[in-house]
């Protein structure tokens, strides 16, 4: 079968006033055989994926999803707006 990969995006900041928004990740041509909720993670263009629909990621919260593809994408932080 097709391999499945789990992605977790975690806000490790402990302050209540540390909620990054408009979080973008490097993601290449990200695609998945398995549907990924676009509110959680959506490729906007090549190497630009948006997390949480651009909404703030609250302190200690995690966005988690599973995707399926024949290889693992190198997903890395690109940019965000910090308070």
From TrEMBL:
Keywords: Signal
GO biological process, one term: cell fate determination
Pfam families in alphabetical order: TPD1_C
Superkingdom of origin: Eukaryota
Protein name stated in the entry: Uncharacterized protein
């Amino acid at each position: 079968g097709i391999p499945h990969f789990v992605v977790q995006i975690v806000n490790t900041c402990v302050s209540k006033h540390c909620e990054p928004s408009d979080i973008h990740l490097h993601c290449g041509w990200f695609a998945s055989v398995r549907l990924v909720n676009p509110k959680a993670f959506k490729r906007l263009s090549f190497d630009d994926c948006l997390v949480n629909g651009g909404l703030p990621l609250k302190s200690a919260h995690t966005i988690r999803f599973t995707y399926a593809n024949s290889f693992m994408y190198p997903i890395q932080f690109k940019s965000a707006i910090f308070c």
